[in-house]
Amino acid sequence: MNEQRAARSVEAVFREDRSRLLALLAARFGDLDLAEETASEAIEAALARWPVDGVPDKPLAWLLTTARRKAIDRIRRDRAYAERLALLQVESDRAGAAAPAAAGFDDIPDERLQLFFTCCHPALSAEARTALTLRFLAGLTTPEVARAFLVPDATMAQRIVRAKRKIRSARIPFRVPEPDELPARLPSVLRVLYLVFTEGYAASSGSELLRPDLADEAIRLARILHRLLPGEREVAGLLALLLLTDARRAARTDAAGNQVLLEDQDRARWDADRIAEGQRLLVPALTGPGVGPYAVQAAIAALHDEAAAFETTDWPQIVALYDVLLQLEPSPLVALNRAVALAMRDGPEAGLVLLDELTAAGELRGYHLLPAARADLLRRLGHTAEAAAAYRAALDLVGNEPERATLARRLGELTGP
């Protein structure tokens, strides 16, 4: 029984505080490999000792003390390792990374903000940033990260190793950027969380429309980031966007896992608590000058959530917000969403003109939602042959099976079995 209780306690601590433990060790020793290895060794020690000695009053402090001792022992045994870590520690000390006091641990600092910015450093590729964030902050195993990227385990393991090697070789410090650096560095962190959520909200491929595990992790990490940076309005804006969007999760599929489009969703199944929380976060995110793109997207999501029915959605306001978003973050994806909203406000002909311009520009070549949107507008106009061709083009590009089934159903409604 004691062993089972100890195992549950270790599991609970590691699940809740693993990223804190790793961040504290990485900040102290400047090395992700050492942090990960000694954290695992501390967990093994806890599984051995806690059933005998009892679960300590402060489990995280116990694990941190044990891991630090094991790290120091390893450094003493390996001179080359010690010399390399000494160089990294100089960089860390210059950046102001300080270890918690050895005694007491009454107020263990939360160094995860440093880990956020290290994993999302601009010297790393966008793919590496996402993989490291999932591995070290979300706590996913390497096979779980591999599944998120739809690559073999060995491939993802190599990518993570290369990313950690890049951190070491470039001497990327474990630190929070200075205030004057933050505006340039924070967007990369927010972008990683948004990409993780997007893949969870609408999987790019596979047999399931949703990846709830990824969406939940993105929201959890966004909450942590908001707690660590409470004064950053775009952090609040991103968290609001994720909550207001994810609130519709339960209504986005039916009992068989088939996709349910926004206009057909049972809005009574939307999560009212998440909507309310997102709306509260949206107020400070939109207050004051310099509103950011995530806050604007959250405002658009809020308008969808506030509509009692699809037909009563405030499309004029949504188009106006997309106009603002295009100024803040001009991109073909924003233009695509604006065109769809414009079609709802002004009719399918108006939206189709913009979609045809996007098609001609070629920037969204390979993105299935562009021909899918064209197909829907052409269908509404009664242009059956053109709509069918557009649906077929979308079917050639889509990777997600429930989305494929939706497109195939709509094509079948036009052309018959």
Overview features:
single chain, RNA_pol_sigma_r3/r4-like, mainly alpha, about 425 residues, elongated, transcription regulation
Percentage of residues in helical conformation: over 70%
Largest sheet: none
Average predicted confidence as pLDDT: 87
Structural class: mainly alpha
| Separation of the first and last Cα atoms | 61 Å
General shape? elongated
Binned strand content = under 5%
H/E series, N to C? HHHHHHHHHHHHHHHHHHH
**What is the number of helices?**
19
Protein name: RNA polymerase sigma factor
InterPro entries: DUF6596, RNA_pol_sigma70_r2, RNA_pol_sigma70_r4_t2, RNA_pol_sigma_r2, RNA_pol_sigma_r3/r4-like, WH-like_DNA-bd_sf
Keywords: Sigma factor, Transcription, Transcription regulation
Domain DUF6596: 185-283
Structure, described:
This protein is an all-alpha fold. It contains 19 helices and no strands. The protein has helices spanning 2-29, 32-53, 59-77, 79-94, 112-119, 126-137, 142-149, 153-169, 182-201, 212-228, 233-246, 272-286, 293-306, 315-328, 332-346, 348-361, 369-380, 384-397, 401-415. Helix 16 (348-361) packs antiparallel against helix 17 and helix 17 (369-380) packs antiparallel against helix 18.
